[in-house]
Amino acid sequence: MHNLADKLAAGLGSLDCILDVPTQERLLEYLDLLAKWNKAYNLTAVRDKEQMLTRHILESLTLIPYIYGTHILDVGTGAGVPGIPLAIVFPDKNFYLVDSNSKKTRFLNQVKIELKLSNVSVFHERVESLDFPFQMDQILSRAFADVATTVKLLDDLWSSHTVLSLMKGPGVNEELAMIPQNMDINVIELKAPEQTEFRCLAELKHRI
Asked: Which residues pair with 165 in a beta bridge?
């Protein structure tokens, strides 16, 4: 754990991100749970804990400057990325984590209990079946679908003030070329520690 704690601290330093010790400890507790459950439930293809720290936790934390509002939906969250790390960092914001895989949502509910994440709600549903009594301020997605499919599936959840924030790789421009033109698009390059290929955040808003 000590080496992982050092690695996390070094990664936070490279991101210019200051988190107190209890928050860092909770991130490492999440990492422990992910590694433990992954052996039986196959939650992620990443097996090595150091790689999990880099690819799942530190990559999620690159979004810290780009989180908006208080109601944030993470679609296709899988093992809770980026929703769980961000919920740990932002205890005053509400995170709604959605996945259609029951093994993954069982894991997320266990994480919520063990880490006492009262700001996290878990939904075992398909995205197109979701219905909330309020509008989301932001919708996050890391590895859900291509941009055009994501825009179509989220249409009923996406109001004029919602920011759709999609974590993407090298093919982002080709994907963005396939969506309707009535949107404002902002592409931000993300730099995580030990990152080997292009990563970005594509922010989309309905043009008012």
From this structure: 140, 203
pLDDT, tens digit (0-9, with 9 covering 90-100), for 96-108: 999 999 999 999 9
Superfamily for the 2-206 domain: Vaccinia Virus protein VP39 (3.40.50.150)
* Ramachandran category for residue 5: left, alpha or beta (phi over 0 → left; psi -120 to 50 → alpha): alpha
**In the chain, what is the straight-line distance between the N-terminal and C-terminal CA atoms, in Å?**
49
**What single string gives the DSSP state of each residue in 125-169?**
S-GGG---SS--SEEEESSS--HHHHHHHTGGG--TT-EEEEEE-
Indicate the average pLDDT of the chain: 93
CB 189 within 8 A of CB 198: yes
pLDDT at residue 2, rounded to an integer: 66
Beta-bridge partner residues of 122: 97
CA distance 186 to 178: 15
Closest Cα to residue 53, out of 3, 93, 103?
A: 3
Tokens 């439930």 locate to: 41
Residue 140 pLDDT more than 60?
Answer: yes
* Rg of the chain, C-alpha, whole Å: 16
Mean pLDDT to the nearest integer, 13-27: 96
